Amino acid sequence: MTPSRYIIARFAQAFGYHRRNLRMADAASEMHLLRAAEAQLGFELWEKVEPIEELSIEYWNLRRFVKEKNIVLAKVQEWQSKLDRAHEERIQALTIAPESNQELLDEREAMLKELEEMSVRRDTVVLEAREIRRFYDGLKMKLEVLTKESNDPNENAEEIAKVKNRLEELKAKFTELKQQRAQIAEEIKDGDARIDAIDVQLGEYKSNRRSHASESFQAISDINKQMSVLRAESGLLDTQMRLLHAEIGRFVSRRAHQHEGCATAAADHRSLIEVMRSLRRSVTLNHRLAGTI
């Protein structure tokens, strides 16, 4: 929204031509671009704002977060190397076998793959059940609030009925998932039993081989859990850093022309700052046209 377009739009409004929803949508889109530009600007110049006293907290927090993230990434790399080695050991444990009893060996390998797939299915069912339980608890709370707020028995009756129906649906779905989990657990148990039987048939050598393979599977599982924790920690640090980048970008872009420290830090980003100024002006004009300010 440029000043000339603003004048034209104001002129059109004088004749009853209002487009409030469009103006609000334009303002929201431009604000999204502005926030992204602020974060990008802060990311590019945050290391230059140390002399700016007003940004001291943001700067030193970012220094701390960068150091913490480097530590986390180093740990991720370390665990990734362990995971690669564990996969290699697993492959060796599954491929090294005598020529005799090859049929049993092939059956055992296929069963191990099925067990992996069933474990994934079980985890998926458990996650879905947790989500349903969370939805159920939320709707239950909603039902309690609606019931307490209702002075008239007919008040909110339709909404309460919908909530009760939805609760029954969720309860039925949760029961179904519970049955699925039990069925998968039984299948896993049967698979484990079959593998044990094959190991007995293969003898002591096969028992040792299975033990090594199981250790590899357990090691892979443990490593994946640890890496998931580290990736979550890295994601949290990224979020915190993006917020600080946005704060720095917002502060510098608003004061680049009157604050000496900001002007110095933003010397190589004046074009971006001008674009951001235009976006702020356009957002303000769109809100004026929408009648929100």
Number of structural domains: 2
What's the gyration radius in Å?
31 Å
Helicity level, as a percent range?
over 70%
Low-confidence stretches: none
Figure out the total of helices. Answer: 8
How would a textbook summarize the main sheet? none
Strand segment count: 0
Run of helices and strands: HHHHHHHH
* N-end to C-end Cα span: 16 Å
Q: What percentage of amino acids are in beta strands? A: under 5%
Write down the overall geometry.
Answer: flat
Given helix and strand content, the structural type is: mainly alpha
Q: Average pLDDT value?
A: 82
Short description:
The protein is mostly helical. It is built from eight helices and no strands.
